[in-house]
Amino acid sequence: MTDEQALIAALRRRDKNALAEIFDRYSDRIYRLALSVLSDEQAADGVVQDTFMTLIERIDTFEGRSRLGTWLYRVAYNNALSRLRSLKPQLDLDGFDEDDVPIPANLVDWQTTPEELLGSAEAMAEVSRAVETLNPALRAVFLLRDVEELSTQETADALGISPGAVKVRLHRARLALREALAGYFSERLGM
User: Fold this and answer.
1) Number of C-alpha atoms within 13 angstroms, CB side, residue 80?
2) Quick check: do 3-87 and 110-189 share a fold?
3) Closest of 171, 188, 172, 167 to residue 110, by C-alpha
4) Residue 110: what pLDDT?
5) Regarding the domain delimited by 110-189, which CATH topology (the fold level of the hierarchy) does it fall under?
């Protein structure tokens, strides 16, 4: 029996320690995912709370076909999208156009960018701002794959899309980020 299976069994017995451990493992990650979709800290907190309420209420229906974390990401993502739709009813997240991302025109050779520039607080703030400008569908894939380091399949499962769509969206997110950050880094490197 794996550690996760033991935790799930304990959750089904309503063990508070198991819930606390799962909360410790996933709450920050779920918050970051929700924040990336909603760009609102209070709403992201609500998604975390709702996700763990769903866990408590529906743990008996969890079939174990995916990892518990993947299931929690899926619940959180759906909850965040629901909140986003209620805030912005005109936003069409289901009809995300894969061709809606422009081809980058201004690229920086990232291999020659000094590490101290990449690691500076100013650069990190600029990267965060660039991530916020991504379409929510691209932002969610970028966060799960590149920040949370989920596999392509886990990301696909969490977002309810195909692995191929994950790869396309991740590639487009990275291109869009490179384009968004190219001016910033070009200016600082005197390019």
Assistant:
1) 29
2) no
3) 188
4) 47
5) Arc Repressor Mutant, subunit A (1.10.10)
**Cβ-proximal residues to 29 (8 Å cutoff; 6+ apart), any chain:** 69, 73, 148
Two tokens, residue 32: 């970051």
Domains of the chain: which residue ranges?
3-87, 110-189
Cα three-residue angle 122-141-20, rounded to 5 degrees:
85
- What are the pLDDT digits (tens) for 49-101? 999 999 999 999 998 888 999 999 999 999 998 998 887 654 445 445 555 55
Helices (H), 59-120: 68-87, 115-118
Q: Write down the CATH number for the domain with range 3-87.
A: 1.10.1740.10
Q: Which residues contact 145 (CB under 8 A, 6 or more apart)?
A: 152, 155, 166, 170
* CA 69 – CA 27 distance, rounded (Å): 10
Question: Which residue type, as a one-letter code, is found at position 163?
Answer: P
Please state, as a whole number, how many other Cβ atoms lie within 10 Å of the Cβ of residue 86.
9
Predicted model pTM: 0.70
pLDDT band at 112 (very low <50, low <70, confident <90, very high): very low
pLDDT at position 102 is: 52
CA atoms within 13 A on the CB side of 52: 21
